[in-house]
Predict the 3D structure of the following.
Amino acid sequence: MASINDVAKAAGVSKSTVSRIINGSPAISEETRQKVLKVMKELNYVPNSMARGLSNQQAFTVALLININDVKSFGNPFFYEVMHGIETVVYSRGLCMITANLESTLKQNELLKWLIYGKRTQGVILPSSIMSNQLVRELKKIKFPFVTIGEPEGIREPIDWVDINNYQGGMQALEHMLSQGYGRVAYIGGEQVKTFNRRRLG
């Protein structure tokens, strides 16, 4: 297994430079950072996030929260592609991803407190289905980094979320059908009250 010394030697930089890149220091140039990250990938080097956390009292993880009982969302094979994409980006930043299951409202509150106030993660990625105005207020109050997967419903405050362009996807699907000579096209989707379905309908 490769060590931090192996990475430093292969990249032609000092061990302290590799360490600063792993810890997200802005003092390193983007060119050097990319070179070191490339070597880390080639050597399959994975930073020891637990040791780093013990040394500077920080967590080097990002938590992905899911609800396995939400079969419509997390039973969809597409979600695992999303999960893989998140994991790839998180690891490229020298962090580790942890996944936690939310089974009930009570467990949601307990788990979030355990993760956030226990300083066990640097940020959380949440499914839009569990977002509420109260949760948004609490996370913003303590200035804790978070982002949701999917455009949230009924949230009054502006928050960061990531989703596909459902409107553009609907338009492309319609244009394709029309280009094939179909004059009457029907859309079969889920509940129209859902934001993503309304977007697809234009």
